[in-house]
Write a structure and sequence with these properties.
Blueprint: H1 3-10, H2 18-28, H3 32-64, E1 67-68, E2 74-75, E3 96-105, E4 107-108, E5 114-115, E6 118-123, E7 128-133, E8 138-143, E9 148-152, E10 165-171, E11 174-179, E12 184-189, E13 195-197, E14 212-215, E15 221-225, E16 230-234, E17 240-244, E18 259-262, E19 268-272, E20 277-281, E21 287-291, E22 304-309, E23 315-319, E24 324-328, E25 334-338, E26 346-351, E27 356-361, E28 366-374, H4 378-385
Parallel strand pairs: 4-5
Antiparallel strand pairs: 1-2, 3-28, 6-7, 7-8, 8-9, 10-11, 11-12, 12-13, 14-15, 15-16, 16-17, 18-19, 19-20, 20-21, 22-23, 23-24, 24-25, 26-27, 27-28
Length: 386
């Protein structure tokens, strides 16, 4: 038996025809490297398929996992069809049950965390208070417990220096300061802390002892030009748009106005100090309502100084001559008043999202802290417990 027939005999292939035997011989003499290539291709294909499955699973898991809130706490992700409440959407404000005094931060002095005639204050998103420390000719930044963080400025007339700074405003990372004694408004980016004055080429927009600043819903800057008895509106690029007011007691006149605030709808509320009243304007600059008169009853004022608006659009006014703070609805209806025996001359005011009210006491040289108690309905209580 030849070697070829012997091979088929050993494989149990006796009786096969010659063509089949030839085909089988070709298969058997195929180089081993081809089988290895096929095997490797199958392994790679399996691995690729496994990798794609793993990637798909990871994507699914990452979409479903909570997101961190920046404090190490996981928060549920925002999913489609969630009704996000717009800042200008009309919401029913919860009734205010009362206001309680919490504590006093700061004290009289010239050191860190000390004040001489603190005036306007503003609260940033990181719960830091910026205080116009007028008597010390600087802006101090403290936390809500009164701990010193940093300061800006010193006495002078050059850029970055102040003469009796009276009020503050924050717009994203830009700080505005009413530099009253220098008859100007300065601003700086909080990153580089380089101050520049708001400058115009027209004499029509020269300031005379500006005392108040407000920020509009689109980043506009509003300046209360106190001794010119008006307020001036600038675009977010600091181009003057218009000015409203003149000296007097009529509907569109003022007597030494000191502050203003703008709500999310664009309504402007001006503190008309000399006339002991609040005057409101719509977003187009048309006067809409006036309330208040000289007196000590609820809804009356004695030299109101500053104004603030909370997240529910309640309006807070420091009624300095009556040593109290009054709260109003957006329409000017009186809600309540609050004070504490040690409050001597309330001036600046800021309200946090949690309802804490910070009031600068110019005469005492400190900041009084209060807490507003809102009435919550059963639905809100149930949701908060969950």
């Amino acid at each position: 038996m030849n070697s070829r027939h012997h091979l088929f005999s050993n494989l149990g292939c006796n009786g096969v025809d010659a063509n089949f035997s030839h085909f089988s011989m070709v298969q058997l003499t195929t180089p081993p490297s081809l089988f290895s290539t096929i095997k490797n291709a199958k392994v790679k294909s399996f691995r690729c398929g496994t990798f794609l499955i793993c990637v798909t699973l990871l994507c699914f898991i990452s979409c479903a996992m909570p997101e961190p809130d920046g404090k190490g706490v996981l928060q549920p992700p925002i999913v489609p069809n969630v009704d996000l409440v717009s800042s200008i959407r009309t919401r029913e404000s919860p009734p205010i049950l009362g206001v309680v005094y919490l504590k006093t931060i700061g004290r009289t002095g010239q050191g860190a965390g000390e004040f001489l005639m603190p005036m306007g204050i503003v609260l940033d998103p990181y719960r830091q208070l910026y205080v116009a420390d007028a008597g010390n000719n600087r802006v101090q930044v403290i936390d809500t417990d009164g701990h010193f963080i940093t300061e800006f400025g010193s006495f002078g007339w050059r850029e970055g220096e102040f003469d009796y700074p009276n009020d503050l405003a924050l717009s994203l990372d830009t700080l505005y300061v009413a530099d009253t004694g220098n008859n100007r408004v300065q601003y700086c980016n909080l990153v580089n802390r380089i101050f520049y004055p708001i400058a115009t080429t027209s004499d029509d927009y020269q300031f005379d002892a500006p005392e108040g600043i407000g920020i509009g819903r689109n980043g506009e800057v509003y300046v209360v030009d106190t001794r010119n008895h008006r307020w001036v509106q600038f675009s977010k690029n600091l181009v003057p748009i218009n000015d409203m007011g003149s000296f007097g007691s009529h509907r569109e006149q003022f007597w030494n106005p000191t502050d203003l605030a703008v709500n999310p709808h664009g309504t402007v509320y001006v503190v008309d100090t000399g006339n002991h009243r609040i005057v409101s304007y719509d977003f187009s600059g048309n006067p809409t309502k006036t309330w208040g008169e000289k007196g000590s009853e609820l809804g009356q004022f004695r030299e109101p100084k500053r104004i603030a608006i909370d997240d529910w659009n309640y309006i807070y006014v420091t009624d300095s001559g009556n040593r109290r703070i009054q709260i109003f609805t957006p329409e000017g209806r009186s809600v309540t008043e609050f004070t504490v025996k040690t409050l001597l001359n309330p001036c600046g005011i800021a309200v946090s999202q949690e309802g804490q009210v910070y009031v600068s006491d110019t005469e005492a040289g400190d900041i009084k802290v209060f807490n507003v108690i809102f009435k919550t309905n059963s639905t809100s209580d149930a949701n908060s417990k969950e």
